[in-house]
Inverse folding.
């Protein structure tokens, strides 16, 4: 029997029993829709969790801090693993490292003023001429740090300005527009006898960064050498970073694939190494397990549908016993009969799989609409979605439903194929 003839015969047989086929396929539709919805729910939860991680926008970097001994008592300065210029060279020599970005904060108290408003922030120098090398972008202005007495500020800096002279009951001041403004930055230190000394710097804002939900939102970035000069004033002498060490560095890797191994190498050297990639891997593993569990729950409904397919095919054999006998009498082989009934069972599963995916897709859309409306009523920011259909799920759900139909029809098809032609022709 040619394949085209087999397919044509299977379609004709399914058409003859439309009502029974539809009712049986409904079970498959419900089971497939349950699998699609639950797996998509797990994938949506995973994407929401990873999108809200700190530093998720840069998975190819490792944040490195000095290493401190694990002790409950006083820490000896000699026991601290400091990040020195020699350490920087060691990091740069590691396989997979493209750049080491030094981050050095002003080691003193800072007060920032704009007209009558004040705020606080970290003033950080980086050994880059352009902040874009850190993976951040300017919402306004530029990210160039080569100029003197200029700063690039994070997106959240403006939110913390307050009026020190504000009276109770007064409205809080509006968030200032910092772009192009001159900030009065006062750096203060204390002498050994307890006297406070201040030095004022007037810094022009040349850029405002886009929001990253990371440390860059709350930082003010300056030229690395300019920050070193401020620290020299604070210390009263030229700071020797080979002895004092830097606050932190960012080690940039060639790709996210080598980040975990790179962080382990740095940790083994005694430093604190943190990377968003490790958090992402942990979350992905958790939600992958959740998707498997959700898919298993949905598969229970498909199991029930499989019983329905087996029952339908068994009833079809009883009703078509004489038909099977006639086909065998005119030359149909056992394999031909087996192929026909397996094809019919798989066809029911295939139709149910298509319908189930469409229904699951519609349910996911409805869930997202209601979730979006709820979040909007709660004034929740972002573009959070409750469900997300993975790219592989449409083909998987249809193929799985077809396979379920095929397996369910295996026993009835074998029973039909092994019928004795003479007995089948005598069957009433």
């Amino acid at each position: 029997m040619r394949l085209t003839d087999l397919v044509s015969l299977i379609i004709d047989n399914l058409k003859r029993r439309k009502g029974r086929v539809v009712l049986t396929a409904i079970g498959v539709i419900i089971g497939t829709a349950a699998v699609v919805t639950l797996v998509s729910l797990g994938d949506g939860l995973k994407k929401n969790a990873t999108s809200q991680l700190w530093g998720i926008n840069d998975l190819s970097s490792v944040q490195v801090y000095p290493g401190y001994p694990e002790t409950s008592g006083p820490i000896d300065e000699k026991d601290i693993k400091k990040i020195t210029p020699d350490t920087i060279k060691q990091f740069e020599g590691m396989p997979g490292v493209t750049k080491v970005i030094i981050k050095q904060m002003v080691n003193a108290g800072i007060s920032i003023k704009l007209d009558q408003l004040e705020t606080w922030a970290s003033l950080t120098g980086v050994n880059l001429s352009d902040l874009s090398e850190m993976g951040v972008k300017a919402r306004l202005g530029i990210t160039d740090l080569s100029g003197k007495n200029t700063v690039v500020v994070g997106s959240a800096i403006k939110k913390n300005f307050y009026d020190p002279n504000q009276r109770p009951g007064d409205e809080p001041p509006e968030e200032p527009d910092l772009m192009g403004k001159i900030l009065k930055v006062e750096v203060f230190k204390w002498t050994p006898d307890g006297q406070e000394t201040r030095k004022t710097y007037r810094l022009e804002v040349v850029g405002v960064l886009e929001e990253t939900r990371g440390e860059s939102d709350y930082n003010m970035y300056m030229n690395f050498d300019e920050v070193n000069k401020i620290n020299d004033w604070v210390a009263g002498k030229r700071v020797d970073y080979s002895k004092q060490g830097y606050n932190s560095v960012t080690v940039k890797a060639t790709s996210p694939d080598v980040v975990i191994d790179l962080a382990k190498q740095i940790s083994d050297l005694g430093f604190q190494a943190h990377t968003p990639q490790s958090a992402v891997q942990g979350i992905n593993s958790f939600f992958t397990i959740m998707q498997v569990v959700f898919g298993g729950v949905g598969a229970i409904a498909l199991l029930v549908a499989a019983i329905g397919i087996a029952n339908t095919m068994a009833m079809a054999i009883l009703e078509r016993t004489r038909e099977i006998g006639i086909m065998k009498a005119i030359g149909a082989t056992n394999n031909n009969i087996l192929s026909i009934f397996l094809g019919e069972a798989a066809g029911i599963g295939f139709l149910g799989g298509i319908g189930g995916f469409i229904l699951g897709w519609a349910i996911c859309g409805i869930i997202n609409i209601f979730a979006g409306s709820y979040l909007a009523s709660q004034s929740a920011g972002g573009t959070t979605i409750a469900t997300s259909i993975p790219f592989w799920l449409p083909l998987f759900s249809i193929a799985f439903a077809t396979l379920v139909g095929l397996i369910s029809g295996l026993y009835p098809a074998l029973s039909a194929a092994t019928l004795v032609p003479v007995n089948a022709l005598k069957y009433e």
Residues 98-249 form one domain. The chain has a mean pLDDT of 85.
